[in-house]
Amino acid sequence: HQTFVQSDLEIVSPGKKQKSRRIVEARILSEATFSPDGKRVTYLASNAGLAGQTQLMSIDTRGGKETCHTRRLDRVVGVALQVHGPARIRSRFVTTEDGNGCYFPVTDGGTAHLYRLGLTGREKTTALTTGQRVCHLLAGNTKHLLFTSQDPNHPPELFALDIESGEERALTHHNDKWLARMRLPEVEHVTVNTDKGITVEGWVLVPKQVRRPCKTILVIHGGPHSGYGNSFNFDFQELVGEGYAVAYANPRGSTGYGDKFSTAIVGCWGDPELKDFNTFLDRLVSLGISDPDRLGVTGISGGGHLTGWLVGHTKRFKAAVAEQGVYNMLSMWGTSDAGKALIELEMGGAIHKIPEVYWARSPLAHAHKCKTPTLLIQGENDIRCPMEQAEQMYAALLDAGCTTGLVRLQGCSHGTQISGRPALRRYRMNVQKDWFARYLK
C-alpha cells in the first residue's frame, strides 16, 4: 500500500475474506520479496527519509522488529544513478535458495557494483564486481548472476558472473560495430574539495577533435537525490559530437556518498550545490579543460531547478537550458503529484509554517537577477513538475528583460528525454543544441 513516498507493507492471506496484516508502516520502501520458506520478507528501505541511503532490510512475516543488514555500508543498496538504455530497468536483489544470503547492487559514488551478504549473522558485504562502471543485477541462481555493465563510452551489454570463480562472460556485443565507427571522447575523473570535509566527485567528457580549453556544458542530474557516474549517456555523446566538453558532477544532495552528504540540502536547496558546482567548474578551468568565457548549463527536473537557480545567482554562463524543472516551491506544493509529500520533506516543514523558506528556495524568487539567455522546456502532461512551473519562470524572465524562450512539448510527461517518443526526444535535443549554438560560441 503506497502513497507517493511512503508505503505500508502488508501480508495478505488469499481466500474469500482476503485478510491483511500490516507489518511495516509509513516507510519509504520497495522491492519486497518473501524468503524461500515464507517466514521473512526482505525489502529496500531508507532510515533517513526520502534523502537517505536505501538499505537492505528484513522482518518476520508475523511482524516485530526490522533488521537492517547494510547499516555499516552507508551507501545506496540499488542503482541510484541516472542512466540511459536498457539498464534503466530497475535493478533488483536476489536471495539464495536457502534464504540465508542475498546478492544486490550497491551505488558507491559514481559506480554501482554487485555485492554478496549473508542474512543470518554479522557477515560483511563482499564486492563481486569492480572497475569504473555501473552494473545492474537482473537475475540469478546458485551458480550465476545475470547483469548489465556500462561505462561512459560503452552502452550497456549483458554479462554473466560465475559466483564461485568470479569470472565474467559477455553475453551480448550489440554495440561493438557502432562503437568502432564512433569518435569517443576522453573521460576525465575530477574531484574537488568545497567546504571543510566535503569532496565532490565529477567527470568531464572531452572531444578529441577540439583544441583545449573547450566550450563546456555543465549537465546537472535530477532527483535531487540521485546521481551521475560511470554510465553511458546518449545526450552527452551527442553534445560531445557538436564540439562541447560535457561536465557533470554529484553535488551535495546526491546519493552514493552517505546519509550526511545526501541530506545536506534539506531546507537549503540551491546554496550547497551552487558552491559545489562553482568549485568544480573552477577546477576544470584551472586544468585547462574548460574555457571560462564559454560555459553553458542544462539540467532536467531537479537539474532544471538548479539550472534556474544558478542563472539567478551567477553570470558565468553564456547560455542555459532548463528542462521539466521546479521553479516555484509554493505552487509546486499544490500542483505536483509529489508536491506535499516531497516538498514538505525537502523544505524541512509544512508550507503554512515556513512559507518564506519555500519562496527563498524557488528560482522564481531570483529570476529578476538573471542575465543568461535561458531556454525552458516543459512537457504539457507533466504531473511531477507541471507546466505552470515553466510558465511562471518564463514570465519572470521576460519581465526581467532576459533573453528567453519556452518550448511546450505536447503530450509529454516527466522524463521525456529517456522515455518519450523517439521523434520528440530528437526534437528536444535539436532545440537544445540550437540554443547552445546560438549563444555559446
Task: Summarize, please.
With 441 residues, the protein is an alpha+beta fold.
Give your account of this protein's structure.
This protein is 23% helix and 32% strand. The termini are far apart. The radius of gyration is 22 Å and the shape is globular. The chain has 441 residues and is α+β, with helices and mostly antiparallel strands. The strands form five sheets. The protein has an eight-stranded mixed β-sheet with strand order 16-17-19-18-20-21-22-23, sandwiched between helices.
Mean pLDDT rating? 91
Sheet having the most strands: 8 strands, mixed
At the fourth CATH level, what is the homologous superfamily of the largest domain? Alpha/Beta hydrolase fold, catalytic domain
Distance between the termini: 52 Å
Q: What is the name of the CATH class of the largest domain?
A: Alpha Beta
Which fold does the CATH topology of the largest domain refer to?
Rossmann fold
Features:
441 residues, alpha+beta, Neuraminidase, Rossmann fold, 2 domains, eight-stranded mixed sheet, five-stranded antiparallel sheet, 11 helices, 32% strand
SSE map:
Layout: E1 7-12, E2 20-27, E3 29-34, E4 40-46, E5 54-60, E6 67-68, E7 76-77, E8 94-95, E9 101-108, E10 111-118, E11 126-127, E12 134-140, E13 144-151, E14 154-162, E15 168-170, H1 176-181, E16 186-193, E17 199-206, E18 214-220, H2 234-241, E19 245-250, H3 259-262, H4 271-286, E20 290-300, H5 302-311, E21 319-323, H6 329-335, H7 339-347, H8 355-360, E22 374-379, H9 387-399, E23 404-409, H10 416-419, H11 422-439
Parallel strand pairs: 18-19, 18-20, 20-21, 21-22, 22-23
Antiparallel strand pairs: 1-2, 3-4, 4-5, 5-6, 7-9, 8-9, 9-10, 10-11, 12-13, 13-14, 14-15, 16-17, 17-19
Helix pairs in contact: 6-7
